[in-house]
Write a structure and sequence with these properties.
GTP binding; GTP-binding; Translation initiation factor IF-2; alpha+beta; 6 domains; elongated; Rossmann fold; Arc Repressor Mutant, subunit A; six-stranded mixed β-sheet
């Protein structure tokens, strides 16, 4: 029974069915998809003898083949028109045809290369613009990504959770009949594009700002520096500068010694390159080691730079050539130095001006430091005062005060007149070429005679105004504070005439007045600013010491933030104790300060080691071993006092004994000082300083002598006594008689007796005697016994004969002379 209707649920009848037409191919894809495509059949070309060989043109160039195909049928058309038999091409024609084809192919190739270069340049330009735009977008997206980071992370977690749930449901659901299970289904082949949405990466965690900026690809975004370098490279390429940059040639200053790192910095090269070059020269050095000037010059020349040889002296700072322009100068206070003889009232006069008692704080009532104070009178401008010592030992400090001052006040006591230190102060003032004001002090005392002082000043070419001269003189009394206002008026008048100016708007430049080592604050220097303004935090160099200003303290003990011209201030923050009188200069950085300080220290070391070169002549001229050396170690509270003490003790030396100061310094007596004293056998003199506990312990163990002083008179007196004791008592000989040997005869078994004729004085038994022969000393002896005829006598007077036995000598001959003398021991005084 047959039915034409198709029944439900039944399969199609089996049979042969044409599915694909000829010349087509059916393609099958996943999920039951298919496609039918037409297959292009490429016909094989058969070459004939008249055709051109394909090797004549490049295989990769299709346009050349098309031209050949167009050119090949041309003879056939002519043959169709003319029934003449086909004519074959000659070899020359074939060669010409091949050359034409090659020429056309070369033109096409060059055209395509030009188009390719143009496309590449456009692509590069577009790429740079895209990168720049992408960087701008990244910067903008950074703010938005920060806000959306949490939301994106939450969405990613929800999506991962939904995907996990979907996978669980798919695994739990049974596979439909007629289809394979998902587990046995083969995975589709990977293609260039993903088929669906990729599953989230659970191991990556939360979405961060950096991950959001990188995008899905996970690549790192280019930095702004990379983009800048790319733009510069593209710009150079467009300008035809595709190669490396042109090397910059520098002028390199090469001192006598320089580190490799500093030389590399001046050359603008890598330090590693310099080390490598030195290694090739056979020198194993590091970047921190020094090389000499010749080696540095070789390196500079090798790297193509210009050499400028400089000496170490060029490292130092020379402020004399640095002159400020006239329009930058402003008025400044005058610097006034008070000078004169000791105990003539210099410090008392300054007390009266300051309204403070300074002299009471000085040991023995004499000034032993340079004091610096700034005073502002009730009617007048500020004035800076320097108080210098008057004792003869402080000559250098007094001269230093005269060299940094604008006005000098010479203090002379009306009852005492001019003294040696007064004359010395006058000479310092004249050498410094500064104006002078004479202050005749102590006019309230009995015996005061101001006119006598004025007349004594005439001997030194100083003519005061009272005697028709040009030097101001003021009669004052520091004790009663008489005429102090007149003295201040004279100072202001002199300052107006000088028109003192300085530039405050620059780096500070000054002079170290005094320096010391404070136990709690470290090295401290009193500095007088000449020009500029010194501020807290400035880097400076003072002599061989460098540092950074940690604090500034004025003369009243108050902290200040800055100090202007002619302002005395204590500076804290030094790396060492400078010498009084050293130059104080602010520099640009710490490296420059260290460089200058190291050079100055090397100069001092060289000067100290070569200060007294010894030669054979000087060794013999100096009496050699006959001169006794008296070693000393001196420690003082400030640098200027240490210098004064050293100079004072050196003046005590004479040809019999000389002082040798092994070490002098500033600050408390330390363990190293005691150790040095123990090894050299020298006493330690402490001037206004004391030893620490450890130094006392070592001194007690090694039996080192300490001497403490605060007045320089007492110190020099003790040194004189100690040196005299080292020499011992002074021996004085008094000649009492002379005699001539007339005969020599035996006295006992071994001794000889001399028959003498007394020529002068007397001969006494037991006295010392010298036996001379032809004015040459034969022996030194003693009169053991004296006989007059057969009697023993104690003395024989001139004009008589006697016999004498000389102790410890038998070398006696007729004609010898005998000199008899007494020995007196006297205490030695230096």
């Amino acid at each position: 029974m047959s039915d034409d209707k198709k029944k439900l649920g039944t399969r199609a009848p089996l049979g042969v069915k044409k599915t694909v037409e000829a010349g087509k191919v059916k393609q099958s894809f996943s999920h039951g998809r298919s496609n039918t495509v037409v297959v292009e059949v490429k016909k094989r070309r058969i070459l004939k003898p008249g055709d051109a060989k394909p090797e004549a043109a490049p295989k990769e160039e299709a346009p050349a083949k098309e031209e050949a195909k167009k050119a090949a049928p041309a003879p056939k058309k002519e043959a169709a028109k003319k029934p003449a038999p086909k004519k074959e091409m000659t070899a020359a024609e074939r060669r010409e045809q091949v050359k034409e084809l090659e020429r056309q192919a070369e033109q096409d190739r060059m055209r395509r290369e030009a188009e390719a270069r143009e496309r590449e340049e456009k692509a590069k330009s577009q790429k740079a613009q895209d990168e720049e735009r992408r960087a701008e977008e990244n910067r903008k997206a950074e703010e938005e990504a920060a806000k959306k980071a949490e939301e994106d992370a939450r969405k990613a977690e929800e999506e991962a959770k939904r995907q996990a749930d979907a996978e669980k449901q798919a695994a739990a659901k049974p596979a439909p009949r007629g289809k394979a299970a998902p587990a046995s289904k083969p995975a589709p082949k990977k293609s260039g594009k993903p088929a669906g949405r990729p599953a989230p990466d659970r191991q990556r965690g939360k979405l961060t700002v950096n991950r959001a900026l990188r995008g899905d690809g996970g690549g790192r975004a280019r930095s702004l520096a990379a983009l800048k370098r790319a733009r510069e490279k593209e710009k150079r390429a467009q300008q035809g500068q595709s190669g490396p940059r042109e090397k910059q040639v520098r002028d390199v200053q090469v001192p006598e010694s320089i580190t490799v790192a500093e030389l590399a910095k001046r050359m603008g090269e890598k330090a590693a390159d310099l080390v490598k070059s030195l290694f090739n020269m056979g020198m194993m050095v590091t970047v921190n080691q020094n090389v000499d000037q010749d080696t540095a010059e070789l390196l500079v020349t090798e790297f193509g730079h210009n050499v400028q040889r400089v000496s170490d002296a060029d490292v130092d700072i020379d402020t004399s050539e640095d002159v400020d322009p006239e329009d930058t100068l402003k008025a400044r206070p005058p610097v006034v130095t008070i000078m004169g003889h000791v105990d003539h009232g210099k410090t008392s006069l300054l007390d009266a001006i300051r309204g403070a008692d300074v002299a009471a704080g000085e040991a023995g009532g004499i000034t032993q430091h340079i004091g610096a104070y700034q005073v502002t009178p009730k009617k007048g401008d500020p004035v800076t005062f320097l108080d210098t010592p008057g004792h003869e030992a402080f000559t250098e400090m007094r001269a230093r005060g005269a060299n940094i001052t604008d006005i000098a006040i010479l203090v002379v006591a009306a009852d005492d007149g001019l003294k040696p230190q007064t004359v010395e102060a006058i000479n310092h003032i004249k050498a410094a070429e500064v104006p002078m004001i004479v202050a005749i002090n102590k006019i309230d005392t009995a015996g005061a005679n101001a006119q006598k002082v004025r007349e004594e000043l005439l001997q030194h070419e100083i003519i005061v105004e009272a005697m028709s001269g040009d030097v101001q003189d003021v009669e004052v009394s520091a004790k009663e504070k008489t005429n102090i206002d007149k003295l201040l008026e004279a100072i202001n008048l002199q300052a107006e005439l000088l028109e003192l100016k300085a530039n405050p708007d620059r780096d500070a430049d000054g002079t170290v007045i005094e320096a010391k080592l404070d136990k709690g604050r470290g090295p401290v220097a009193t500095v007088l600013i000449k020009r500029g303004t010194l501020k807290v935090g400035d880097t400076f160099v003072a002599g061989p010491a460098a540092g950074k200003v940690r604090a500034l303290i004025d003369d009243h003990g108050r902290r200040v933030k800055e100090a202007g011209p002619a302002f005395p201030v204590e500076v804290l923050g030094l790396g060492g104790v400078p010498s009084a009188g050293d130059q104080f200069t602010v520099v640009e950085n710490e490296a420059r300060a260290r460089e200058v300080a190291e050079y100055r220290q090397s100069v001092l070391d060289k000067k100290r080691t070569t200060a007294a070169p010894m030669s054979l002549e000087s060794m013999f001229d100096k009496k050699g071993s006959e001169t006794i050396t008296f070693p000393l170690i001196i420690k003082a509270d400030v640098q200027g006092t240490a210098e004064a003490v050293v100079n004072a003790v050196n003046k005590i030396s004479n040809e019999d004994i000389e002082v040798r100061v092994i070490h002098s310094g500033v600050g408390a007596i330390t363990e190293s000082d005691v150790t040095l004293a123990a090894s050299s056998g020298a006493p330690i003199i402490g001037f206004n300083v004391r030893p620490n506990a450890k130094a006392k312990e070592i001194a007690k163990r090694d039996q080192v002598e300490f001497r403490y002083y605060d007045v320089i008179y007492h110190l020099t007196d003790w040194v004189k006594q100690a040196m005299a004791g080292e020499l011992g008592p002074e021996i004085i000989e008094h000649v009492v008689g002379k005699a001539e040997v007339k005969a020599v005869f035996k006295s006992g078994k071994k001794d000889k007796a001399a028959g003498l004729l007394v020529l002068d004085g007397v001969i006494k038994k037991g006295l010392h005697a010298r036996l001379t022969r032809d004015d040459v000393i034969v022996s030194k002896t003693t009169i053991a016994s004296l006989r007059r005829f057969k009697d023993d006598v104690d003395q024989v007077e001139a004009g008589t004969e006697c016999g004498a036995v000389l102790e410890d000598t038998n070398d006696i001959a007729e004609g010898d002379m005998l000199e008899i003398f007494e020995v007196e021991e006297k205490e030695r005084v230096l």
